Structure formats: C-alpha cells, structure tokens
Amino acid sequence: MALQLLDLAQLPVPLTAFGNGPHPANGNRPTPPGFAKLEGMTFDPASFVFSQPSTPTAIRASTVLPARRENVELRTADGHRLVGELAVPESGEVKATLITLHPLPTHGGFMDSHVYRKASYRLPALAGIAVLRFNTRGTSSPRGTSQGSFEEGIGERLDVEAAVRFAVERGLPNRWLVGWSFGTELALMYGATEPVAGEIEGAILLSPPLHRATDVHLKEWAASGKPLKVLVPEHDDYLQPAAAAERFSLVPHADVVGVDGAKHLWVGEKYAGRVLNEIVAEVLPGGAAAALPEEWDGPVATAHA
Hints:
By secondary structure, the chain is an alpha/beta fold.
C-alpha cells in the first residue's frame, strides 16, 4: 500500500530502504519491512525547470504546469511546526482553495500522496485553484518532517485547524477540505464544528473508511448543511459504494458517488483524473462546464525521480 500511495518513480528526491527502526512517518514506532525512508533533505518547488515545447504536451503523472509554489509552515495551537507547500495560480484570480488532508501516515500517506501531488501540479493552471498540502504531525515527505508524532486522529484536530487558519490568514477564498482515507476521518470529525466549520464551504471525501469518524460526526455534517461530496471506489478495501450510501444516509444532502473499477488508492491516470474532475466540478462556482484538458499548450516541467 505505501508504495502505491507514493508513486515512487515520480518523487523529486531519492528514497532509501530502511529496516524496522522508529521513524516519524510511522509515529516513531517500528516501521514495517519494505517501507521507504525519505532522505534528509527539503525539496524546493522553485527547482522545477520549465521549458516551452513546440507542440501541446500530453498531461501525464509527472507533468508539472506553471504555478506560484512555495514551501510553507503551519503552527498548531499546541506548538508544533507542520511543513507544507502552497501552489496558487501564476496569474489571475484564485477561484477556490483545496486544504488537503492526506492518507494514514503509518501506512505510507503524506502530503505527496499521488492524487494531491497531481492536484498541485495541474489545478492552479487548469482551473485557477489553490492547493495547500501539508504533513500532519510526525509525518515525513520530501518537503521535510512535521513536528510531533502520530496521534490516531485526536491531536491532528489541531493540525486541521492550523491549516484552515493559514488559508484564512493568506486570504485564500472559497476554502474546501479534501480528505483521502485517514484524511476523510479528520474532515468528518472536525470540519462541521467550530472553529473550522465557519471558515470552509464544505468537504470532498476520497475513499472514506469510516473507522474513526462515527455517526455523531455524520449527524454534525447533516446539521451543518454544508456540501459533502463522497467518492467511493467500487473495489475499496474498507467501504464500498452500497455500504457507503447506507452509512452516509445520515447526511441527507451528501452526494455519494460510486466510481466503477476504482480501488482505495485511485491508482492509474484514469482514476486520478476522475477524482480531479470531480473536485473541480464541486468547488468551482457554478460547477465545471467541461472536463479538465488532457493537454497543455504552454511551459511545462517534469518531476524527476
């Protein structure tokens, strides 16, 4: 699972194997054999080298489109420094903001989990959408390691609040939580109550397992009336479409969408692209009129291993 989440061939820094010693990405607990360790360096998004091809470029997993990208730090109420990256459109207005909450860090999830990385590579240029990615407490990525340690979704409440507060202070508009797997638990548990609820428009959930989030949290979302889009893979490991529809019936306005052929990790351009199109259609005012382009006629860079 961890290797599929990482899309290793597209990471901008090398990985090295390591054994069963403690590591922040695993909550400082022994790491399962076969996991990967990020080398001690911080990736600078300004290092992407853009060129102007003579013909339109097909958008692939490693294609990076123009944006203003910067490494950022979030500060939690309990004093932790969380590392992240903000990507905003190179020019023009910001039409929406995605505050992304990554999959389970003890199983390979981090801010570079492939759907979020592709969102940051593409959506600022293709849709005018800002993408904030960050590592929750104790999680490592090429960007660096966030302070603290994994707290099973409890202490991470302060991480969600810090990310939303950062987006508000930056003046980023039309803010949405986007959670994937473990990230959906955080969105459900903390997105419909203050201080987060008053600062976001709604949430989009990818592969919700509903392990930590309970009926109490679903009822909070029902009471909030805030939009809730739920994308459920047909072959999900934890919650498949029919069961998801039953569980989310507690939120009458939730839009539960089963995605044929997809699995929990949304592996493959077909499914990653479907997710990005669903996100854009949900968050842009008036909805997206058409699917995202599959080619780009302009400067491009490539994310190298």
